[in-house]
Amino acid sequence: MDEETDNSEKLHSPYTGRWVALVRGRVIAQGGTPEQALRASQSSRYKEKPEIIFMPIPFSLPPLIDKIKDTLPADQEIYLVGGAVRDLLTSRLSHDFDFALPSNGISIARKVANALGADFMPLDDERDTGRVVLTDQDGTRIYLDFATYRGANLAEDLRARDFTINAMAYNLRDNTIIDPMEGASDIRAKVIRACSPTSLSDDPVRILRAVRQAAAFGFRIEKNTRELMKQGADQVGSVSAERLRDEIFKMLNGPKADTSIRALEMLGVLSHLMPELLAMKGVEQSPPHVYDVWTHTLAVLAHLDQIISGLRVGYDAEKTNDMFTGLLGLRLGRYREQIARHFAAPLNVDRSHRSLLFFAALYHDVCKSETKTIDETGRIRFFDHDVKGAEVAAQRARAFNLSNDEIERLQAIIKHHMRIHSFAGRMEFDKQTPSRKAIYRFFRDSGRAGIDLILLGLADLRATRANELTIETWTAYLDVARILFENYWERPEEVVAPPRLLDGHELMKELKLTPGPLIGQLLEAIRENQAAGKIENREQALSFAREEIAKGPVAGEA
Question: 20 to 30 A from 413, CA-CA: which of 149, 180, 191, 435?
């Protein structure tokens, strides 16, 4: 029995994790807090004076919690609160730990940071909140937030939180749990329920958080809470762009991103969050597309998740009954570790590489509605939707305050996402593999985004053809992906980034040229022919340059 199953069964026992009232050793009432257990006992045994005790949950605390306890005075009142308690009860690994205490949040945070040799920052002077940031050897960061109570006491603090599953507190001193909102019961029932009728209007970003956590935990959102979410959808625009961005990127980094985005659309949130996406709804596409643009986009997210999962290190191919995923592993499985390293290098420490790729997937066809044309045969086309879509996505990225590196990567993915389909079409119908020069140009234009483009291309194909996808077409795409991966990771100096044989100054000196655009054109033509295997040394490079000059103006790229 694994730990998560074991803890689940312990949570399902009637009194585990609860406060109970005992009379002569017999449980007569229970509650989420000592006060609730006492009140429940008095309603039936008002003449009795019960003993109130906590029925412990035998879970293991992370060693970090013990280190924090050791740094604090023995009489310090302090509670682990919120999502970290939820994660403990469901055997999930958390990197965010929130602590609530009566006062001195910033000074306690500074004391813990000094003891742990970690970074410290005051987070909110008004709420007396300090943050401690620990960085692991692999670059993973753990956040410890210390805040004074939101209200007069712990009970008021918990009731002011978003959802019942996040409104529990763990007492670091006596290892008991305070659960006034019955969050543990909702965890057992797999339900997300607002703590109060004003929980969502108090902070509308919680609408996005409910959707994200429902997908992450496989929970359902309780009916009344869903209604509150719909009623508060128009308030999402009042939230800062950074907080909205963070929820969206966490959503895209988690499971069932397609389901989450669909839920936001159905709740009426997208029109206040990313309204440009709604233009894709109902936009028809010609075969081989089987869906309209919006449904296709959501399907791309689902297939992208499946493809990345199928190529992760340790993936058990025997667990899939999907023939296409099986072939994916057979053809591309040798690159699992390289793909893992690719995703382990984010462009921003606060957002994952994976979430940025999913953001690109969400926007890759965003301009199909405005570029739609119908030719004389009745075929629907979307000329330049990739180029225009890259700019629309960049505008949203800038509004979300993404970094310049992230925006550049996002634009590269969307602008070039059709190139994989061109390669695969020639492979399938003409039996023509990508030339060395074509491979060079692909990675020259896309850089590291080339790996993202390959994975997005595979997901795009599956979402285009759906059940009509043939093994022949899928195999052609996998062969193109394998060739591109092979050249990028196994033959980079031969094809992808051949070493420079001479620079502009040498070229001008040897050929007696003056500075100008011609120099850059010649150098690039030399590198292309290096990649094609036609130039191998400096002498050949100079000879090639002389021949190009003799022909007249250097021709532009095909």
Answer: 435
